Automatic annotation (TrEMBL), chains A, B:
Signal peptide: none annotated. Keywords: DNA-binding, Transcription, Transcription regulation. SUPFAM superfamilies: Homeodomain-like (SSF46689), Tetracyclin repressor-like, C-terminal domain (SSF48498). InterPro entries: Homeodomain-like_sf, HTH-type_TetR-like_transc_reg, HTH_TetR, Tet_transcr_reg_TetR-rel_C_sf, TetR_C. This is TetR/AcrR family transcriptional regulator. It holds the Pfam family TetR_N. Gene3D superfamilies: Homeodomain-like, Tetracycline Repressor, domain 2. The keyword Iron does not apply. Residues 41-60 bind DNA. Residues 18-78 form the HTH tetR-type domain. One of its GO terms (molecular function) is transcription cis-regulatory region binding. Residues 1-20 are annotated as: Disordered. It comes from Rhizobium vallis.
Length: 200, 200
DNA sequence: TTATATTAACGTTACGTATCGTAAAGATAT
DNA sequence: ATATCTTTACGATACGTAACGTTAATATAA
């Protein structure tokens, strides 16, 4: 623990400005929430934030990636995995999810996701962190419930998870019915009835 | 019914060309399927079809509407509502749905829907005809099953329907798992187990 | 004759890139 | 120690391209 020979070769030159990135992300988020995805152009973000276009392009390849990064900053609250029944845990989580997505934010996220290159690494990271994090937490909850007999086989776990989390995005995308807390509750209740031990 | 006095006032001048519309729709559809929604620009459609831009704009307000119209031309096959158990009917319908959407077409539809103005009349028509037609047919199937006791209360019909059709679009949008026929089967099976009479 | 079709061009917006001079930080020499 | 390289990022500006949606001019078909 002494020589700096191979440890961190000390970068030269002006360091990238974290403040500039932060300002760009904030401006992007503001535009997304007030004017929508279609108006969140790189030029608009540059004008609003005072950050130069080339600086923005140095951090993000295009407007879609910047939008996803901006939507990623304020994460959704993580689900409380431990304690209680699976139903209680899922209902609590679903309440948070519905609150977070039944808003401008939810629509913007859906649009960003649909518009983005599905193969891009950025898109995959976004999906995993924003969309699938709830689903992954749900998997933990359901596997624990399965282990202690609260739910019973046959359980097609992936199908069951998509039946719980898919409807929220379906309503968000199609807009035929509102995304309400009661809706979230009904989804969880119905899904769990399909894998309940008795016919209760 | 004879005189043309107030019925059909005999249009004067050159009539709109149905052929031009058709050519534009075909070109739009081809571009959607081969190059994707992002590259289906009005100019590209005009160039490919030989129809002038102003003519295209006379029929559709923007590229989104043209895209939806093009996707609307070849409708999805309607579900066979009558006969058999609810499970058989839903599985058959879901097979068709999965086949139709587990393709370029499905992704294009999802993108068009996410990108479109949710309040536009065109968008609403598109949702009703392309997205919700399956769901509506499913409602008929399930209500008949409910009437003859094949499924039993409590049934939150809207939640149940979204649990059946939502997951398909969820997978299409997020792309975390493939949309396969087996997946469709599992969804129908699991959903019906939630409303089955006994604990079977 | 009159409404539509086609073509061409228009102004606008945003794209993504290149270049300019400046700012900030480590390296180097006095 | 302090001044001067060197390197890298910065903000500003301008560029050529692409597509937008509109308009004017001409051709064409009832």
């Amino acid at each position: 623990m002494s020589q700096e020979s191979n440890a961190t070769p000390k970068k030269r030159g002006r360091p990238p400005s974290a403040a500039a990135q932060k300002r760009a992300l904030e401006a992007a988020h503001e535009i997304l929430m007030t004017e929508g995805f279609g108006r969140m152009t790189i030029e608009a973000v540059a004008a609003r934030s005072g950050v130069g276009k080339p600086t923005i392009y140095r951090s993000w390849a295009n407007a879609q990636e910047l939008a996803m990064a901006a939507l990623l900053v304020n994460r959704l609250p993580e689900a409380e995995v431990g304690g209680g029944t699976a139903q209680a845990a899922l209902v609590a989580q679903m309440r948070g999810l519905v609150t977070a997505f039944a808003s401008t934010r939810g629509r913007q996220i859906t649009m960003a996701l649909a518009a983005a290159d599905p193969e891009s690494e950025f898109t995959k990271a976004f999906r995993n962190r924003v969309i699938l994090s709830s689903r992954n937490a749900g998997r933990v909850i359901l596997e624990e419930a399965l282990a202690r007999g609260e739910i019973v086989p046959p359980v097609d776990m992936d199908a069951l998870l998509d039946m719980i989390y898919g409807p929220v995005f379906f309503r968000l995308l199609v807009g035929h019915r509102p995304v309400s807390p009661e809706f979230g509750d009904a989804i969880v209740r119905t899904a769990l009835r399909a894998v309940a031990p008795s016919g209760a």
